[in-house]
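Quick one, probably user error.
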C-alpha cells in the first residue's frame, strides 16, 4: 500500500510560506534561513517555488529522486523543483493545459540551472523511443550552443546568461516531445566591445582561441594569444573551473547534434573571428584643408585580413569607416567621420554583427528543433530571464530599465493569473468571491509602456525628433510629462512640489517599481535606444561575398532601400515583451523564484541583507499576500478527511458516506469558527494558516492518543493470546501425564504375573532336573567303578614289565664294567714310559717343518735393497727369525757381487770412495750419486781435435774434462782442458790444446772444496816443489765429485805414500804466487739464475756466492 504523506510531515520551518504565522519580512527570511541551513533549498508560496542557490551539488537531483516525485501530488512531498515540473508536465499531458514555467531571479541565483533541471526532469519522465530520444537530445543540446554565444563570466556568476530566453517545448497527446521553439531577448551586446572590470566577453571568443586546432586558427587568421585582441578583457580571461578548450569541443559536438552543417559552423566561426579582428582596427586623425579632422585607418593589415575572411572588398569597408551617407527623399549627402565617430561606427558594427549572429543562431536552432508534424500539440514554455536588476553601486541604465520593465510585466501577469486562477477556483468550487486587497502594478506598467505618454514612447519620440537630441532633452521631456505620476520622481518634479531630495542627482529619474525604488541615470538612453548602425556599413556588409553576412544585413540591399528609420531598441523590446505576455497569458503559469544566499558564490553562507533585498524586489511578500488574500489553504475532501478523520468520533475510524459530508461533520465537531473555512464543491478552503496549524496540532495529539490506544489493544491481545496458549498447553500436559501413570500401573501388574508364572515353572523344572540328575549319577557311578577296575589291572601289569626291564639293564652294565676292568689290568704295563717326550719332539718337528716349507713360498726377492721378511708364526722362533734374514741378505749380496765385471767393480769402488769422502760433508754430493763416472768426457784418444794434446801426454788419461780456471785477479773463469793421468794433472788451452801447466801428482799437497753445492776446488801444491812456483790452482768443474775422487785414488797409488788430503770447508787459503788469498763461500740469493758467482772483494778475499738449494 502506498503511504500517503504530506508536505506538512517533518517540516523544517514551514514548507509553504503561505502558512507562515505571523507573516512578516523577518519571519519570512528566518524561515528561508532555517530551511537553507538544513539543506532545504526549496520552499513554496502556494504553487510558487522559491529556490535558494546552494552553490554546491546536493544529492537531491538523482534518478531516484525523479522516481520519488514522479506522479505524486504537489503537496505530498517536501518542496522540490521536481514537484513543480511534475505538476506542470502532468497537467499538460492529462488535462491538456499548455504550461509555462517562469524562472526569475537576479544574476547568479540559479535560473539557468533551474531551467535545466526542469527540462531534464521532463526529459526523464516523458516517453522513450529512438525518435523521441533524438528530439530530447536536440532540445537539450541547444543549451550548450546558446550558452557559448550568450553567456559570459560576470562578477556575480561565472556562467551568466547575457540574454533572456524563452523556450517552448512541444508535446504530442501522449506527452512525448515533438520539438521546440526558442525566443531570445535583449542580448547584452555592449559586452562585445567592452566589459566591466573582472568580467569577460562571451565565452565563445575564449573557447575558440583556446580550443580550436592550429589549422582552424590559421584558416581564421587568428592567433591563440588573447592579448592580441582589444575586445577581449585580459585580467579575467582564465576562469577557475572553466575549461574553455573542452567546452569548445562540447559546443562543436552540440552544434553537430542540433544539426548544423560543416560549412555553417565554419561561417559562424568566421564571423566570430571577424568581430575579434574588427576590434583591432584603429584610427588616426588626418587634418583636412577645411580645418576639420578626418579619420584614417592606422594599420590596414587587420582590415585586410578581416575583409579576406568575410569576402568584402577592402576599399568598400575602408570607405564605410570614413564617410557617412545620409539619404533624404531625393538627395544623398556624404559627410566625413572624425576619429570618435569612426570608433563609434566600428563598435556599432561589431555589436550588430555579433547580436545578429546570435539571433541567426537561435533561428537556425529553431529550424532544427521545430516539430515535424502539423498535428495539434501541447506546449510547455520555460522562461529564463533576468530578474529585477538594481545596482546600488553602479549606475542603472537603459538595460536595467528595460529588464525591470519586463519584470514589472511578469509581476503583473503573475498577479493577474494568480487572482484569475483563485477566482476561477472559487467559481468552480461555488464559493462566494470576497474582494481581495493587493497592490496592482498596472499603473507602473502604464507609466512605462503607455503609447502616448509612457516613458518608452517619449524616448522614441525624442529619438525620432529632428534637431539636437540629447539625454538631457529626454529627461526634460519626462519632467514635463510624467511629473505628476505618483511612481515617478526626479529632481525637478520634487522641486515643483517644494521638496528637496539630495539622493536624487540632476541627470537621473527614479521609478517606484512594485519591488522598490530604482534610480536611473539618463546618460546613454537615447544612444542605446537608437542602436544606430550607419547605412554605409550595412551596405558594405551586404556586399560581402559571404552567404551568412549577407543574410544578417538585409537592410544593406540597395534594391530595397528603406528610408524609414529602423525600429528603436525600446520599441522592439516592448513589442517582444507584448508578444511574450500574450503567449504566457494563454498558458498555465508555474513560477520558480531564484534567490542567491550570498555574493561570494559560496555554499553555507546566508547573508540576511542580500536575501532580504531579493525577497523585496522579487515581490515575494507580495506573492504571499496575494496567495493569502482569500483562503490560505485548500485541500480536496478525500485527503482532508483521510488526514483529519481521527479528530471526530463520528468519522473515526471509518466514514461510510461521501467525503464532503464527512469533512462537514468533522469541522462542525471542532471548536473552529465557521467563518474560518468554506466548503467548495470538491475542496475545503481554510482562511487562516492558524486554523490549519490548529488542525495539525490536534491531529498530532490525536495520533499520540491513537498510538496509545493501539498499544493498549495490542498489549491486551498479546496477553490473552499468551493465556490461551498456556491453558491449551496445560490440558495437553495433563493428558500426557495420565497416560503415563496408567501405563506404569499396567506394567507393574504384568511383571508380577510373570514372576508368579516363573516361580511355578521353575519349581516344576527343578523337580524334573532332580530326577534326571539322579539317573545320570547312577550311570556315571557304574562307569567310574568299571574304569577304576580296568586301571588297577593295567597298572599291575605295567609294574611287572618295568621290573623285568630294569633287571636286564643292570646285568648289561655290570658285564661292561667287568670287561673294562679286565682289559685295563692287561694293558697297563704298555703305557706310561717315554710316551710324553716322544710326543713333544714329534710335535716340534712337525711345526719346524711346516715353518720352513712355508718360508719357501714367502721368501723375499733377490734385490739387495729389499728389506722385507715374512712374519714370525711362533714366539719360540724369535732367534731363528732374527738370524735368518741376515744370512739370507749376505748370501743375496754375494750372489749379486758375483755377477760384476772388473770395470764395473772399479766403478763401484770409485763411487764408494766418493761416498766415503763426501757423504754428509758436501751439499753437491747427493746429486752426483746417480751420475756414472765417465772419466773421459772429451773422448781424447779418438777425437782428432785433441790428437796433439794426447800425444803430448805419455801416460794413459784417466779423466779428461773442461774446467774453469778462476782468474785470481777478478774471480772470472777461463775454460781449460783438465787431464788426469796416473802421474800428473795437466791443464791445457781449450782451443789450441797447448799444455799450460803440468803438475806431477806427488807435488799436490791437498785439495780444498766447500761444503756447498758449488763446483769450486783448489789444488794446493807442496811448498818448495817445482810446480809451486806459479801458485795454487783454483778451478771449478761440473764433475767436481768425480775429479776429486779420481784424484784421491790416483794420488794415493802414484805417491805410494800417504793419501792426498781433501779439505772440506767454506773458507780456505789459496797461495797465489806470493800472497795468500782467502776463498770464502757464502750462501747468496739466487740472483742470476742458479749460477755461482765469484768476486774479488779485496787483496785477501775472494768471495764465492752459492745460491741456496731448495
Ligand atoms: N541547484 C543548484 N545546485 C547547485 N549549484 C547551483 C544550483 N543552481 C545554481 N547553482 C550554481 O550557481 C551558478 C549560477 O547559476 P545560474 O543558473 O547560471 O544563474 P543565473 O542563470 O540565475 O544567472 C551555477 O553555475 C552553479 O554553480
Ligand atoms: Mg542564467
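Nope, works fine. Designed sequence:
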Amino acid at each position: 500500500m502506498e503511504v500517503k504523506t504530506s508536505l506538512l510531515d517533518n517540516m523544517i520551518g514551514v514548507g509553504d510560506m503561505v502558512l507562515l504565522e505571523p507573516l512578516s519580512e523577518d519571519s519570512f527570511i528566518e524561515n528561508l534561513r532555517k530551511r537553507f541551513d538544513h539543506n532545504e533549498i526549496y520552499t513554496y508560496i502556494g504553487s510558487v517555488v522559491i529556490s535558494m542557490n546552494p552553490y554546491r551539488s546536493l544529492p537531491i537531483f538523482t534518478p531516484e529522486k525523479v522516481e520519488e516525485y514522479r506522479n505524486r501530488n504537489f503537496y505530498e512531498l517536501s518542496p522540490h523543483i521536481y514537484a513543480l515540473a511534475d505538476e506542470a508536465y502532468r497537467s499538460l499531458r492529462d488535462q491538456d493545459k499548455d504550461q509555462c514555467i517562469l524562472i526569475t531571479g537576479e544574476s547568479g541565483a540559479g535560473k539557468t540551472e533551474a531551467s535545466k533541471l526542469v527540462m531534464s526532469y521532463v526529459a526523464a519522465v516523458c516517453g522513450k523511443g529512438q525518435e523521441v530520444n533524438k528530439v530530447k537530445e536536440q532540445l537539450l543540446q541547444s543549451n550548450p550552443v546558446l550558452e557559448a554565444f550568450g553567456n559570459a563570466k560576470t562578477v556575480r556568476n561565472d556562467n551568466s546568461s547575457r540574454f533572456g530566453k524563452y523556450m517552448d517545448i512541444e508535446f504530442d497527446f501522449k506527452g512525448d516531445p515533438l520539438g521546440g521553439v526558442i525566443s531570445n531577448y535583449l542580448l547584452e551586446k555592449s559586452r562585445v566591445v567592452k566589459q566591466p572590470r573582472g568580467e569577460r566577453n562571451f565565452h565563445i571568443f575564449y573557447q575558440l582561441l583556446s580550443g580550436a586546432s592550429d589549422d582552424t586558427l590559421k584558416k581564421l587568421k587568428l592567433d591563440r594569444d588573447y592579448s592580441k585582441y582589444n575586445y577581449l578583457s585580459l585580467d579575467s580571461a582564465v576562469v577557475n573551473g572553466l575549461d574553455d578548450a573542452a567546452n569548445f569541443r562540447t559546443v562543436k559536438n552540440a552544434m553537430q547534434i542540433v544539426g548544423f552543417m560543416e560549412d555553417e559552423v565554419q561561417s559562424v566561426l568566421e564571423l566570430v573571428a571577424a568581430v575579434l579582428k574588427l576590434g583591432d582596427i584603429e584610427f588616426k586623425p588626418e587634418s583636412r584643408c577645411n580645418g576639420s579632422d578626418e579619420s584614417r585607418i592606422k594599420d590596414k593589415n587587420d582590415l585586410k585580413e578581416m575583409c579576406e575572411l568575410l569576402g568584402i572588398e577592402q576599399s568598400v569597408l575602408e570607405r564605410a569607416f570614413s564617410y557617412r551617407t545620409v539619404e533624404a527623399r531625393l538627395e544623398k549627402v556624404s559627410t566625413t567621420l572624425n576619429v570618435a565617430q569612426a570608433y563609434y561606427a566600428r563598435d556599432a558594427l561589431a555589436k550588430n554583427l555579433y547580436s545578429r549572429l546570435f539571433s541567426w543562431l537561435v533561428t537556425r536552432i529553431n529550424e532544427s528543433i521545430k516539430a515535424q508534424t502539423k498535428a495539434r500539440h501541447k506546449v510547455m514554455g520555460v522562461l529564463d530571464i533576468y530578474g529585477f536588476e538594481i545596482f546600488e553601486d553602479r549606475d542603472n541604465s537603459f538595460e536595467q530599465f528595460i529588464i525591470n520593465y519586463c519584470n514589472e510585466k511578469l509581476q503583473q501577469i503573475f498577479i493577474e493569473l494568480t487572482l484569475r486562477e483563485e477566482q476561477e477556483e472559487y467559481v468552480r468550487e461555488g464559493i462566494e468571491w470576497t474582494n481581495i486587497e493587493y497592490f496592482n502594478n498596472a499603473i507602473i506598467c502604464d507609466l512605462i509602456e503607455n503609447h502616448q505618454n509612457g516613458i518608452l514612447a517619449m524616448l522614441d519620440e525624442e529619438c525620432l525628433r529632428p534637431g539636437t537630441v540629447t539625454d538631457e532633452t529626454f529627461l526634460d521631456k519626462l519632467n514635463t510629462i510624467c511629473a505628476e505620476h505618483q511612481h515617478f520622481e526626479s529632481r525637478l518634479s520634487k522641486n515643483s512640489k517644494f521638496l528637496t531630495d539630495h539622493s536624487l542627482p540632476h541627470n537621473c529619474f527614479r521609478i517606484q517599481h512594485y519591488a522598490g525604488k530604482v534610480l536611473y541615470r539618463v546618460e546613454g538612453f537615447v544612444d542605446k535606444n537608437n542602436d544606430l548602425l550607419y547605412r554605409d556599413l550595412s551596405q558594405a556588409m551586404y556586399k560581402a561575398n559571404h552567404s551568412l553576412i549577407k543574410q544578417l544585413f538585409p537592410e544593406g540591399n540597395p534594391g530595397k532601400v528603406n528610408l524609414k528609420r529602423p525600429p528603436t531598441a525600446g520599441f522592439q523590446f516592448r513589442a517582444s515583451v507584448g508578444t511574450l505576455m500574450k503567449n504566457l497569458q494563454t498558458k498555465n503559469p508555474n513560477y520558480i523564484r531564484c534567490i542567491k544566499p550570498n555574493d561570494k558564490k559560496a555554499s553555507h553562507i546566508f547573508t540576511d541583507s542580500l536575501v532580504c533585498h531579493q525577497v523585496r524586489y522579487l515581490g515575494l511578500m507580495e506573492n504571499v499576500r496575494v496567495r493569502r488574500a482569500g483562503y490560505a489553504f485548500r485541500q480536496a475532501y478525500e485527503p482532508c478527511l483521510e488526514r483529519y478523520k481521527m479528530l471526530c468520533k463520528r468519522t473515526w475510524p471509518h466514514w461510510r458516506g461521501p467525503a464532503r459530508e464527512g469533512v462537514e461533520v468533522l469541522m462542525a465537531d471542532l471548536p473552529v469558527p465557521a467563518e474560518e473555512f468554506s466548503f467548495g464543491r470538491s475542496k475545503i478552503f481554510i482562511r487562516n494558516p492558524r486554523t490549519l496549524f490548529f488542525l495539525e496540532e490536534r491531529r498530532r495529539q490525536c495520533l499520540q492518543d491513537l498510538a496509545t490506544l493501539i498499544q493498549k489493544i495490542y498489549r491486551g491481545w498479546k496477553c490473552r493470546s499468551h493465556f490461551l496458549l498456556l491453558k491449551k498447553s496445560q490440558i495437553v500436559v495433563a493428558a500426557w501425564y495420565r497416560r503415563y501413570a496408567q501405563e506404569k500401573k499396567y506394567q507393574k501388574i504384568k511383571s508380577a504375573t510373570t514372576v508368579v508364572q516363573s516361580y511355578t515353572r521353575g519349581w516344576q523344572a527343578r523337580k524334573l532336573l532332580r530326577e534326571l540328575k539322579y539317573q545320570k549319577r547312577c550311570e556315571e557311578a557304574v562307569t567310574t567303578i568299571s574304569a577304576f577296575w580296568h586301571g588297577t589291572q593295567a597298572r599291575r601289569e605295567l609294574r611287572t614289565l618295568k621290573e623285568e626291564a630294569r633287571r636286564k639293564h643292570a646285568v648289561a652294565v655290570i658285564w661292561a664294567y667287568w670287561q673294562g676292568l679286565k682289559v685295563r689290568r692287561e694293558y697297563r704295563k704298555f703305557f706310561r714310559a717315554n710316551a710324553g717326550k716322544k710326543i713333544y719332539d714329534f710335535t716340534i718337528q712337525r711345526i719346524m717343518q711346516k715353518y720352513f716349507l712355508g718360508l719357501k713360498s714367502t721368501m723375499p726377492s733377490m734385490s739387495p735393497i729389499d728389506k722385507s721378511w715374512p712374519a714370525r708364526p711362533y714366539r719360540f722362533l724369535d732367534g731363528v727369525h732374527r738370524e735368518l734374514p741376515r744370512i739370507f741378505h749376505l748370501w743375496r749380496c754375494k750372489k749379486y757381487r758375483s755377477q760384476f765385471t772388473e770395470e764395473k767393480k772399479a766403478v763401484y769402488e770409485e763411487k764408494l770412495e766418493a761416498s766415503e769422502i763426501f757423504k754428509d760433508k758436501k751439499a753437491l754430493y747427493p746429486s752426483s750419486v746417480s751420475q756414472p763416472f765417465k772419466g773421459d768426457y772429451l773422448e781424447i784418444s779418438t777425437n782428432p781435435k785433441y790428437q796433439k794434446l794426447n800425444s803430448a801426454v805419455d801416460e794413459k788419461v784417466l779423466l779428461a774434462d773442461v774446467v774453469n780456471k778462476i782468474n785470481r785477479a777478478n774471480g772470472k773463469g777461463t775454460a781449460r782442458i783438465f787431464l788426469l793421468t796416473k802421474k800428473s794433472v795437466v791443464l791445457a788451452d781449450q782451443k789450441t790444446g797447448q799444455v799450460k801447466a803440468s803438475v806431477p801428482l806427488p807435488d799436490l799437497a791437498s785439495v780444498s772444496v766447500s761444503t756447498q753445492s758449488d763446483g769450486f776446488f783448489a789444488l794446493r801444491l807442496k811448498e818448495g816443489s817445482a810446480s809451486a812456483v806459479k801458485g795454487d790452482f783454483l778451478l771449478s768443474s761440473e764433475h767436481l765429485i768425480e775429479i776429486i775422487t779420481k784424484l784421491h785414488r790416483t794420488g794415493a797409488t802414484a805417491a805410494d805414500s800417504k793419501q792426498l788430503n781433501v779439505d772440506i770447508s767454506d773458507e780456505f787459503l789459496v797461495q797465489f804466487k806470493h800472497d795468500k788469498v782467502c776463498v770464502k763461500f757464502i750462501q747468496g740469493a739466487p740472483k742470476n739464475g742458479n749460477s755461482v758467482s765469484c768476486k774479488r772483494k779485496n787483496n785477501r778475499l775472494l768471495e764465492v756466492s752459492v745460491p741456496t738449494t731448495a
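The mean pLDDT is 87.
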